[in-house]
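User: Hey, my collaborator sent me this sequence without any context and asked if I could get a structure. I don't really work with proteins. Can you help?
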Amino acid sequence: MKKKGQVTIFIIVAIVIIAILALYFLLIKPPKEIQGVYTDSIYNFVEECIQETAEDAIYEIGQNGGYYMPTSLSTRTGIAYYYADNKNLMPTQERVESQISAFIKENLFFCTKNFVQFTNYNVSQGKIDVDTTITKDKVNIKVNYPITLSQGEESSRIEDFEKDVEARLGLVYNSIAEVVNSSEYGICLSCLYDIAEENDFYVEMLDYDENTIIVIFIDRNSEINQEDFEYVYAIEV
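Assistant: No problem. I've predicted the 3D structure and written it out in structure-token form, which is a compact way to encode the shape of the chain:
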């Protein structure tokens, strides 16, 4: 009888433990995943914003000589000098890439607008990180943007995005570098027009003031913001 009583107690304790565990998982269960069209709509929306903001970034750095924010060695209108004081001041490709990344990181929010159009869901956002790679005929943009989409007990998380912007920025940059490096005075007219013809660019040169020339590389094979892509820089003469 004593042994039977002990067994009964063990059974009761086991039942109580199982009941407690069942109640715990019933009341404090992990959120379900939001699947399908809702997650896809957020993902597609962010991708479109990345594309739009990246094109704005490429347009902006093209107008300012590779910079998002003008440097101290720029004209009053913000165009960077590539040659001044007998020095080659052209930024490295890595610097131009970092400027595009900085623009996207700081301006992507203006496109997503805190996801206010997705009124049926709570959307929380994490820190944005951007990595840009310029190649000959495109600009690759990788964005880490942690986003959690939730509704009631359901939630989903997305964070990695990637877009390619079709623009010959790498070819333009390398062509300009070849021109700037070919002369101790920052400009070689014969080199300039030979390179432009070889790569199907158009080049304009404008007098900015008595000491400065503005050079504009125009690529009609690349369209940014529905305009021919332009890369503009200044040279002190």
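In plain terms: Residues 212 and 236 are 5 Å apart (CA to CA). You can pass these tokens on to your collaborator as they are.
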